[in-house]
Amino acid sequence: MSLDDAVGALRACTVFRRIDDGRLKLIALTGETLSYRAGETLFARGDAGDAAYVVISGAAEVRMDPAAAPVARLERGALFGEIAALCDRPRIAFVTAAAPLEVLRLDRAVLRRLLAEFSDLALEVIRLMADRLESANLKLAARDAGGDAARTKA
Amino acid sequence: MEAGFLRFVWRHSWRWQLSILAITIAVFPLVYLSLELPKIIINDAIHGDDGPRALLGFEIGRLAWLLTMCCALLALIGLVNALKWRLNVTMGRTGERMLRRMRYMLFERVLRFPAARFRSARQGELIQSMLGELEPVGGFIGAVIATPLFQGGLLAVYAGFIFVQDWRLGLAAVAMFPLQGWLIPRMQARVIRLNRQRAVGARDLADFIGDSVARIDDVIVDGAGRWRLAQLSARLHRQGRIRLDLFRRKYAIKAVNNLLNQLPPFFFYAVGGWLVIEGRLDFGALVAVLAAQKEMASPWREILVYVQNWTDYRARFGFVVEGFGGPDLLPQERIEGRPGAAPLGGDCEIVVLDGGPGAGGLFISRLILPQGARVAVLGGESGARAALLRMVAGLEAPVSGGVTLGGVALHDATLPQIGAAVGHVAEDPALSGGALRAALAAGLLRAPPPLTGAAAAEMRMEARLTGAAEIDPDGDWIDYAAAGVAGADALEARMLALAQGAGLAPELRALALEAPVPADAQAHWAPLVAAARAALAQGEDGSADGALVADLIAPWRRDAMNAHACLLDNLLFGAVTGGAADGDAALARDDIAALLRESGADAALAEIGEAIAVEFAALVAAAGRDSAVFGDIAGYGQAQIVAAAEYAASGPPGRRASARRRFMVRLAARFIPARDRLAVLDAARRARLLALRAALRARLAATPEFVFFDSDAVNPALSLFDNVLRSPRRFDRRGAARGLNGAVEAALLGAGAGEGLLRLGLAAPIGRGGALLSRAARRRAALARALIKRPRLLVIEAAPDAEALAFARREAPEATLIHAADAATSEGADLVVRIDAAGLATASPGAREQGGGHEP
Lengths: 154, 856
Prior knowledge:
A: Jelly Rolls, 8 strands, B: Rossmann fold, six-stranded mixed β-sheet
């Protein structure tokens, strides 16, 4: 549970890659290191988006329904929960620990202050969001194209 | 309260005014003597002949005469000042007593306002006029006789003295008075008008600030912060302009007055000098006249100020009293009750009631609620229903028509009558008293205890002298008979039964867990806490609760560091019980601080503190000392982090080494390894801390108010919850800690602490107005508060559920129960009142057909 573990995980996270070690340590210190046992829930759909998380060790799984198969697996360096935290939105998925899990929890207010203060971090978050938006657009476009093709055939 | 200012002052303070008068009169001859003596000293003792003087039959030499006269002058000055002190104290006390009387009377009048008046009453204005505006009036009343008499008398003495020396100088001294007396009050008139404008502005300002705070919800959701600021700014601007105008005029008056006061000396030097040269006036007399003339300026100024104040304060008094008066004011017995008046009860009758503005159009031609009926009110959500229920409770007055209870109109009933007969549960009730026990008893505070005991004698006398009630504010006010119980113990049992019946038990237990264990209940709690601890400890092997708790806390072990506790706790392996449970409380204790110094623990902590400071210095170097992010670091403030960094950057300790050492000890003392995660605790430092812990144990065992973490004693500085756990919660498991409270509560219940928890919950703080409870819990508490006084009429504004209704009916079987209802809860009611969209209320018998409700 040392600060260095948290700093290592932040360094493995793309959003934090341009931040120097000194500031990474500060970011790790403003967060809390939390541990979960396998199967424990970090948050459920509909919960308030009060924090963002970075996986330090172990793995977490994302589900749209607690009984359904996971839609994503998060491992060391993965950032999650940041959209709900930044946009004041409720959680849209369930996240549970898939194995003994250690995460760095960054409170919403802290996250916002970090973005306001460290512009290179804000830029990286924007880049991450833009990437996700683009891939979502591509997926939608592909689905529309598939649908059009199906209708044409019919 | 008498409207005439002078009549009011004279009627309530004539005794004190007479004693002020007596002291004032006693001062004058002494003042005259204090002018006469210097003349004797100069003319006789200094300039006179060398021959002996006769004093009380003895002959004394010239030097002895001089010394005697000087000593007499000194004694005289002392005496005059002692009398002036006495005079000022009497005046001050008179002013304070009159101020107290005025405020008491005005607040009493507020309690006698009819309900309708509170619709238009502006809270801020009432407060400002009762406090700010009256404040100077009190001081003025103290001086109302003394000032004109004393200052006028002084003026007369000085002027008389000058006339006695030479009538021409006397004329010169008073030559300017007629001009000043004519001119200054004219200049004053405008100042008084401005003062009144300022008072009106101050009331408005007070009301605006009060309104902004009271309606902060609207300010937030309307985003009206800037608008409010602009409104405030405009008011401040207006006030500022009035003040500026006031200053200009006041200082102009002062300048003119000063100028006119400076003219007489011109005559004195010219005419007086000429008379001395001519030999018609002796030199000592001229010096004394000059001194007397100089003394005249001050009383003259005071008299002019008095004249202005008289006009100003008399008007202000009338202005304030007017705001608290009016023909609609209810009689005084409204508060104290009519002797021999029968308690209210019987059928509640509503006749031709028109709710008026803000009542959702409420109109009722005639409605009778028979005693004991349950009346459900449906519809009227736009405001008519709430208005009807508040009118039935006597909280609001209709524009026309009225509500009677057993033939007595509610608006005519006295507060003791209403308090005994009517129970009311508001939509969003506030709970007073700080704890549930006090909040539940709030409806029973109707047996004023007399002020008794020697300590109360002064309070009683002051109350009598200022027209206040001679009642003990802190005594036992509870009317046990009203609750149908014999005494305090029976009342507590009744409270517990009602709180449980109202479904408040979970809230009481939750409050109890967070409450500190009272020092006088240690013996009761120690075995229960021990049993709960044992149950949780056993559970580590078996029960789910025990396993849950074991997973979420970090138990103390005597031979190991606890990463989830601060280093000071780790070092002491215990905590002080007195004062706050704050981590630094132990460091603030001299005996423990000395122990740390002597044992070398101080040095060990300071060394770790230095290591932490080096880490902080690196952070400050990376982000800059002004970074707001430092404010987000748990346990340490930005200022502390920056100061630590500065120490670290300044190199090894040099000057101010002891201050630096203290700082570093505090820095390390609050360091929590699992929370702060900085790598400052290597194996050697941990071993050293553990060795110190062992060395300190024997000494700490002898320290008063100190409890070890592995002791079975209960620590009154900690909450019950923390006492049961006796271990810090794990920082890394905070994300999974939801079930912890439930587990601790279950362990205490298992140990047999059920009733104890409820009792502790009754005494636990509930926040201002009950803010620590949910609105639903506050409503249930308000229902219990209403039921405890066994009302004849119970009004419930928010639609209660079936369970609450059954409970209310069970606890108050004979009361008329009128409540807001929905379709489900109106079933089984004796009478159903339906309010249509236009606000017209009509009644029909309920489904049970037992009620007596009817409408002509």
